[in-house]
Specification:
5-stranded antiparallel sheet
Amino acid sequence: MESLNDGEFSFSHETIQRDFELLTKALDASMSGIVITDNQQPDNPIIYCNDAFERISGYVRREIIGRNCRFLQQEDRNQPEREIIRKALQKNENCYVEIRNYRKNGTLFWNELYLSAIKDNEGKTIYFIGVQNDISRRKKAELELRQQKDQMERQVQERTRTLKINEEYLSSIVQTVRESLIVLDPDSHVLSVNEHFLRTFKVTRAETEDRLLFELGDGQWNIPQLRELLEKILPTNNPVEDFEVEYDFPHIGKKLMLLNAHRIELEGEYKDRILIAIEDITERRSIEKRKDDFLSIASHELKTPLTTIKGYVQMMNKLMPENSNLRFKDLVGKTESYVNRLNNLITELLDVSKIQTGYIELHKENFDFNKMVYDAVEGIQAGTKTHHITIKGKATDSYLGDETQLVQVINNLLANAIKYSPNANEILVYLSLVSDYLKVSVTDYGMGISSEDQKKVFERFYRVGDIQQRFPGMGIGLYVCDQIVQRHGGSLWIESEKDKGSTFSFTLPLKERADA
């Protein structure tokens, strides 16, 4: 309730809460993308984004919170507008730029950005608010207007001839490509198919073209998932990528297919066509399953005798006489070291096996996240004399998650930071809260990773080429870390430059979210 007291208004908690919810709804209803960054934290992390920002950028909220806005430029870093933004942030000033950004799927869009500083009563800038609009269409129109009209007329005849050549060339490519292709009209009638489709599904062109797709082969293409794709998804004008369909065909057996579909809008006779590419991944998926099964069985079979060997080595250490030969002691010590290393490798393989088969489970309990990180750093620090690990900031003393698995993530990131920075001696761990997420960053000043390799470092068994030759390993540690973070509803990413070091960061939601 509101009350009058000595000429001043006092607002209840309910009123403030109602106004806050109204403001949030208003921001989410905006057609413009809106973000708020915290100027009081290092690197100005994003602490709020509205629904429109998610739609425009293609990222979901958990992939946005905690990052600096520059991640939208990806590798396009030499834009002069970036310097304008940087100077505005340094001087705590407002600015306006038109800058090239990239969605999560890599597509370019032009961003009209208004950046405003939010200051406290003392004039100190504590936040920045950014309002963005997608002006790609306007930019495209401006580019088209720059073209000279008189050149178009002189090129009509040449383009007509080139178009005919290209049409014939394209037709030959379509017919020889090792992927089944279908072209449909808006009513799902088959206009054309390529030779690969005819061979794969054992039909003739006469049995296929000019017929309704769902009636082909006495209804064998009347697949519910395919109907959903054509009748519900494609009409939204969104392309369909890697849509998985499994179906048991009467004549050729069970097939696992990966479908990519696009609605093509052209002028004239060929207006509105649907292109579907079908990749038969039945054999590939079968090979992957056999490989995962082998990995699981081999890891378990190796674990049992290795545990026995490890026990024998430990027993040798305990029973070894004090006056034993130094050479013998050294050999036993090296044996124990290699057994432990092999045990760690097999443990990682078992983790991968559990992830692939879906057997990895989260045992969530409330624990002190700050203490967990400090204890993990203390353990790693005790085992290294070459690097000094510094911790700054705090996250939370109460987090609901699987402490054992998150310790594994911290240990792996720290071990990598030490391993891949042999010529540096400092590692920084930074803890913070950004919006309703906790954030952990591990920074080293070592070898760094190229932009091309950064896209693949979280893939299973991937190892960077030059690192692979210098350092041993199987390339599964970061894959396991990424899976653990994802299963907690978080996001793990890297920022790095060659020869300047790397920062691995991850965020975890402080409460369960529907989009996690």
